[in-house]
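Late entry, evening session. Most of the bench is empty. Finally got around to the prediction I had been postponing all week. Sequence below, unchanged from the version circulated by S.P.
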Amino acid sequence: MENWEQIRRLVGWLDEQSPVTGDMAKVMRVLKVSEETGEVAEALHGVMGANPRKGHSHTWDDVHKELVDVAITALIALQTLTPDAEKLFDERLQHISARSLG
């Protein structure tokens, strides 16, 4: 199944299962990106052993998985906010690529 179709299906599932609806659902899905970003930070701290109490509690594989979770969560939030998510993502990626790569 194509990635964007999976994102749309996940949004539909969330719409059906979540007790939060309307604008509050939009807000919660955008805030979820921050939560997932925090989990990346926690995993990175664990890889580096930055917390003396926890030591080396994570692996780079954990960081990779958490980064993917951030990306998926961001795409779900974008799809929740606009039906044009795929087009906006593609346009923005092209803009950033052109700006950065010339």
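Two things to note before I forget:
The radius of gyration is 16 Å.
DSSP finds four helices and no strands in the chain.
Will write this up properly tomorrow.
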